[in-house]
Write a structure and sequence with these properties.
This is Pentacotripeptide-repeat region of PRORP domain-containing protein. The chain is mainly α. It is about 70% helix and about 0% strand. It folds into two domains: about 70 residues, no CATH class; about 70 residues, no CATH class. It starts with 9 loop residues before the first helix and ends in a 6-residue tail after the last helix.
Length: about 160
């Protein structure tokens, strides 16, 4: 591209990252990110795309490691990457890990990046796995600023979490 005086943009790079991952060329995707970051494409956009691509090819462990590395380095994951990461972790039955990751994201003030469905998934999972302290903490947050999504609201009300606060 550069030989033709074309500057890669975010959409092209993200498409290449996804394509490389689908073809199982993850190392090449990482090399591409190293080449293009700082040249019109943000580090956060690239790594968020890589996290999502890794999840797509069922490499959740690698995606989670990369996601946590992003948080440690101060790179802000995209809203989709945050929500998808927590959703996938909860989907594996690791709701407490999902809640801890949520707390980490919130501590870094990235919580606005999480869609409202995730709060519902977390609360239902915490209730179902008898993590009442964590469920109560999350329920308190929900009372302040987040509205539950159907059908999760009925499940949570059945668990009697919100009425005990």
């Amino acid at each position: 591209m550069e030989a033709c005086s074309c500057v890669p943009n975010c959409i092209i790079i993200i498409t290449l990252i996804k394509g490389l991952c689908v073809e199982r060329h993850v190392k090449e995707a990482c090399k591409l990110i190293d080449k293009v970051t700082g040249r019109g494409v943000s580090n956060s956009d690239c790594y968020s795309s890589l996290v999502l691509a890794l999840i797509t090819i069922n490499k959740l462990d690698e995606a989670e490691k990369l996601f946590r590395k992003m948080l440690v380095s101060g790179a802000k994951p995209s809203a989709i990457a945050c929500s998808t990461m927590i959703r996938e972790i909860c989907g594996e039955g690791r709701v407490l890990d999902g809640f801890c990751l949520y707390n980490e994201i919130e501590r870094m003030q990235y919580f606005s990046s999480i869609d409202t469905e995730i709060y519902s998934i977390l609360l239902v999972g915490l209730c179902q796995q008898s993590h009442s302290v964590e469920a109560a903490k999350l329920a308190g947050l929900l009372r302040k600023r987040i509205h539950l999504e159907a059908p999760y609201d009925e499940i949570i009300m059945e668990a009697n979490v919100l009425t005990t606060l």
